[in-house]
Each structure stands twice: as C-alpha cells, then as structure tokens.
Write a structure and sequence with these properties.
By secondary structure, the chain is of the alpha/beta class. It contains ten helices and 15 strands. It folds into two domains: 192 residues, Rossmann fold (3-Layer(aba) Sandwich); 132 residues, Rossmann fold, CATH 3.40.50. The structure holds 6-O-phosphono-beta-D-fructofuranose (F6P).
Length: 358
C-alpha cells in the first residue's frame, strides 16, 4: 500500500502533527508514505513527491506550518495558464493529476484541507481517486465538524494580541479596532473577542450598524471607561453593504480585509475620539500549535489511516461531540459552517453586554 498526503490551501498550526501521526501509523502497517510538495500544483512537475520516512517526521508535532509546503493556487480543476495573447486563463488539468497518482502507484490520498480542498477532493473522488480527508482551517468553517485543526491556536493568538492592545488603548483612551481572519465565518472573531473581553464584536453572521456601536462607546464613557476594543472579523458586513475585498488573483479565492480601517475612521468621525486599527493577519496562522491542536491533529492523522485500512474511502475524519467519526466528503463539499445565531456562545456575548453591532 502506498499513500500520499496533501496539505493544500492556507497553512494552519497542527498540519505537521497530522502528517506525523498518519505517517507513523501507516508505517506500522508496512505502508509507504509520500507527501505532495507544495500542494496539487506540483503534480505537474517532474518530482512532485517527498518520501515520508520516520526521520522526516521526527520532532514535527510542535512545528507550525507544513513540512510539505502548500499553495493556494493548486486546484487541478482550475489551473492558471498563459494564453497566446499573454493574458491568463484557467484550465481543467484534473485528468493529468489523476494520471500522476496512477503512474506513481499511489493507492490512496489523505487530503488535509479546508472547504476549498474538500470541494477538490470530492471532484477527484468522482474521477476514481480513493481519498480520506482531514479538516484543516483556522477559520473553523467546515460543515459537519465541531472543530478544525488550527482553529484553537489561531484563537489563542488573537486573544493574546487583543489582550495586549487593551493596555495601550486604555492608556490613550482610544478606540482600537482589531481585524481578525475567518473569511465568511465569525468563529475566530467571536471566540477571541469574547475571551479577550472585547466591547464590540462584529462577525459576518450579524450585519452591523454604527448606531449601536456608538451607543456602546458612549455608554462606556458614561461609566468612566474611556477606551473601547472593537474586534471585527474580516468578512463582517455592514447592513445593506457587502464585505471588504482587498484583491483577487486568478485561480485563488478573493482576499478579504479593510473593514478595520473603515470602522476606525467612521467611529472617529462620529464620536470625535481618537481611533487606531490593526490587522492581525497571518500571525493567526503561524507559530506553535496549541496542545489541543496537536492532539486533534494527531488523532485525525491516525484516524485517517484506520479509515484507509478499513477501505472506508471518500470520507472526512471529523470531530463531533468530542469523538472522532467519519462523514462522506460529498456531504461537506460546497457547504460552510457559520456561527449559529441561536448558539450559546453568541448568547453569552450578548448576556454579558458585548455589542454585536445590531
Ligand atoms: O482560510 C484561512 C485564511 O487564513 C483566512 O482566514 C484568510 O482570509 C485567508 O486564509 C488568507 O489567505 P492568504 O494566505 O492567501 O492571504
């Protein structure tokens, strides 16, 4: 048996732990393991695979990033190519990708990725590849998963950063607007904002208006709190508007961002208070994985090998109610897990007086 591991899309803390567990568990069954270099894009190169030996995966549980490398533009169904007139287009090279796996005698693929990777995995299974998925994204937005690897670390990083911003905001009596990642879901914003005692949390699931935010700032001032911390998820949406987009590259998802500056400027204009904005950005993807992320990543990795050993293909390994289980990848493709408006976390924020912008 020969298996390949892919870590496509944005990196997340815990990827290496999943690679290590899958590799070691596979070796114990006498299987060969290779990793795909820098995502599916390298399948079209001469040397797409890295042999995953015991030595290669030694000591990597606590390392952030991915030892395999990754890329955001490796969708085999939408590969960028240059046209004769110099412009760029997208072409479907998935059949070639499938051929590469066949040529190298790869029996099964472990696709570690987010919603984009699961969409690709689902389409590859329809072309005959045998795939087991592992849910990875700091955004925590994969449907069917209570939690994805990388989320816990990203939330801790964001929480720690917001804690640090509080002291400077308080000293200067400023409004501090902190933009966090998460794409179209507010998991990072809600969990870090709540944990760091933000005063205002704006997430894509709840359209915001300025009036309640200003009311909150004034209310705090009336109680002698001269500063306000606003946590805004990059995908947050003002009522009647759409989310901020920084840019779009061919073959990649749109890049979100910019809400922080807009909100800081508007709040300054409308309250007369000084404001500053900060984007936490890729800090949230970096660093050492938390204990929880290491643990679930190791569990996901070993569980993926058990699924392959049982020939239970085209499944995603997921955490549900604290137990590892498997669901069809097809159930997950093209869906997104958003923060439920009736969930207790959002309710907790409201119960303790945090303004959600509505
Ligand atoms: O999906 C993970 C994520 O970090 C999002 O939170 C963010 O919008 C995006 O990736 C950033 O992607 P890139 O690394 O391509 O800028």
């Amino acid at each position: 048996m020969k298996i390949a591991i892919n870590t496509g899309g944005g990196d997340a803390p815990g990827l290496n732990a999943a690679i290590r567990a899958a590799t070691l568990a596979a070796h114990r069954l006498g299987w060969e393991v290779v990793g795909i270099k820098n995502g599916y894009g390298s399948l079209y190169s001469d040397n797409p695979f890295i042999p995953l030996t015991a030595d290669k995966v030694r000591g990597i549980t606590m390392l952030g990033g991915t030892i395999l490398g990754t890329a955001n533009r490796g969708n085999p169904f939408q590969m960028p190519y240059q046209k004769e007139d110099g412009s760029w287009g997208l072409e479907d090279r998935s059949d070639e990708a499938v051929e590469v796996f066949k040529k190298h005698n790869v029996d099964a693929l472990i696709a570690i990725g987010g919603d984009g990777s699961m969409k690709i995995a689902h389409k590859l299974t329809q072309k005959g590849l045998r795939i087991v998925g592992i849910p990875k994204t700091i955004d925590n937005d994969i449907w069917g998963c209570d939690v994805t690897l990388g989320f816990d670390t990203a939330v801790s990083t964001a929480t720690e950063a917001i804690d640090k911003l509080r002291t400077t905001a308080e000293s200067h009596q400023r409004i501090m607007v902190v933009e966090v990642m998460g794409r179209y879901a507010g998991w990072i914003g809600l969990h870090s904002g709540l944990s760091a005692s933000a005063d205002v949390i704006l997430i894509p699931e709840v359209e915001y208006e300025f009036e309640p935010i200003i009311r909150k700032i004034k209310d705090r001032e009336a109680r002698g709190r001269m500063y306000t911390i606003v946590v805004v998820a990059e995908g947050a949406v003002e009522k009647g508007e759409s989310h901020f987009v920084k840019g779009k590259t061919l073959g990649q998802s749109e890049q979100l961002g910019g809400a922080d500056e807009y909100i800081a400027k508007t709040l300054s204009e409308q309250t007369g208070k000084e404001s500053r904005s900060i984007v936490l950005g890729h800090l949230q993807r970096g660093g050492t994985p938390s204990t929880y992320d290491r643990l679930i990543s190791l569990r996901f990795g070993a569980a993926a090998i058990r699924a392959i050993a049982q020939k239970d293909f085209n499944k995603l390994i997921v955490m549900q109610k604290n137990c590892i289980t498997r669901i069809p990848i097809s159930d997950v493709a093209n869906k997104m897990k958003l923060v439920p408006l009736d969930g207790d976390t959002i309710q907790t924020a409201r119960d303790i007086g945090i303004c959600m912008g509505d």
